[in-house]
Amino acid sequence: MEKVKHAVVIYARYERFWHWSQAILIFVLAFSGFVIHGTFNLIDFETAVNIHTYSAIALILLWLFTTFWNFTTGNWKQFLPRTQGLLAVIRYYAWDILFGRPHPHTKTMRRKQNALQGLSYLTFMIVIGPALWVSGIIYLTYDLWNVIEGSQDIFQVVTFFHTAAAFMMMAFAFIHIYMTTTGKTPLHYIKTMITGVETIELTAAEKAYFAEQHPKMLRDKE
Ligand code: HEM
Hints:
The protein has a single domain, classed as Transmembrane di-heme cytochromes, Chain C (Fumarate Reductase Cytochrome B subunit, Up-down Bundle). 64% of the residues lie in helices and 6% in strands. The protein is mostly helical. The longest helix is centred in the C-terminal third of the chain and has 30 residues, at 151-180. It has eight helices and two strands, in the order E-H-H-H-H-H-H-H-E-H. The protein binds protoporphyrin IX containing FE (HEM).
């Protein structure tokens, strides 16, 4: 099948909005959360609790809406785990990248993410995210269940899980930000997530589909 490279809008407007608002909320939650935890005290405790509670509610709403968006647009298929190409991508980031060798994954509309990236986003969505919101909601509703026997002990376990998940989220964020710098230029991937545009290979059928149905998504005039 013949494929030609084209500049295409690969991240829809909602996808970019969701990505950046999620990033801001996670940053705000991490900052206020670690003030609550006592790691640093750049703002007072009560303000941190208020900021944390409201941003948590906003993030849960954003996640609910985005889950709905992912399923209704078919975007969920991008996150299906696969092993094909996984070893090559691991080898690339561990070794080949140091010698400027080409990335083994070619972005397509069907697979915008490489296998390793897909797996890490899936872990984010089904492990780290839920660990935070489940433990967070139990934490938030402590006043409703503090009458049950052993509530103090349960509370300790919940705060432990919430903090452990927060550390996992931070590890994800640091690795994710490092990965964004490994494109053609250090800011290439960041720019793509702002403009939505990336040069990828399109099949003749995909190109015809875009030209006919979504001409604005094709950003070059060939
Ligand atoms: C997603 C929904 C979330 C909910 C519902 C939630 C809820 C909560 C609540 C209720 C508290 C206790 C505040 C208080 O003392 O009243 C808390 C603490 C905390 N949160 Fe979250 N949170 C969420 C997400 C996050 C995220 C994304 C992070 C960091 C990346 C985070 C990090 C923390 C930390 C470090 C603490 C302090 C734990 C401790 O030492 O007790 N939270 N959270």
